[in-house]
What we know:
- The protein starts with 13 loop residues before the first strand and ends in an 18-residue tail after the last strand.
- It is of the alpha/beta class.
- It has helices at residues 22-32, 47-54, 83-96, and strands spanning 14-18, 37-41, 59-61, 75-78, 101-102.
- It has a single domain (14-108), classed as NAD(P)-binding Rossmann-like Domain (Rossmann fold).
- The chain is 28% helix and 16% strand.
Amino acid sequence: MPYFPLFMNLKGKRVVVVGGGKVASRKVEKLLLFEPRIRVIAPKITRYIQSLAEEGKIELLKRRVRLKDLRDAFMVIVAVDDLRLQKKNIWLLRENGNTLQLGGQSRFLHLLISSSCGKG
């Protein structure tokens, strides 16, 4: 499947990361460079995510994701290893009408995140 290369300004926009493990931590670390308002939703989280929440750099909801959590999201990243959870969370995104959806299995993806691009 061909993908369209896309660059976007995330500054000040709500980005929801569903998942709190190593993959989610890497996504959050990269996202912080672009100054979005990050909300992480997961019942279990890494120490890194906990420290970011304590420092006020991200909003943290330590529980399972709910449909209402996605309503104000500009972008949602599903960063969970469990295929069943990926499918469930992507279904929630579609039910909510989110236009940008991310997941871990390529057959479910609407958008891929590769490396970042900066000036110069």
